[in-house]
Write a structure and sequence with these properties.
The protein is an alpha+beta fold and 73 residues long. The protein contains two helices and two strands, in the order βααβ.
């Protein structure tokens, strides 16, 4: 587990992308669960917040696949 101290104009999705290489598969939500109270911050995080970034989980549930619907052919 590593910790990250926010800098000016940091966003949680960008921090997750830099740490884990992706924001898919609910990684941002998973990091929010590991850091209670961070959801109360705005999109641009305040300066100096410490965020715990645990090691990447082995497997996160994939997002649901939506069936594509064509209205006109």
């Amino acid at each position: 587990m590593t910790t990250y101290v926010t800098k000016m104009f940091d966003r949680l999705d960008r921090i997750c992308y830099d740490r884990y290489g992706s924001t898919s598969n609910q990684i941002v939500e998973w990091v929010m669960d590991q850091n209670p109270g961070i959801e109360m911050c705005a999109i641009v995080l305040p300066l100096g917040i410490t965020i715990n970034l645990p090691d990447a989980p082995r497997k996160l549930t994939p997002p649901p696949v939506l069936k594509q619907i064509f209205l006109w052919k």
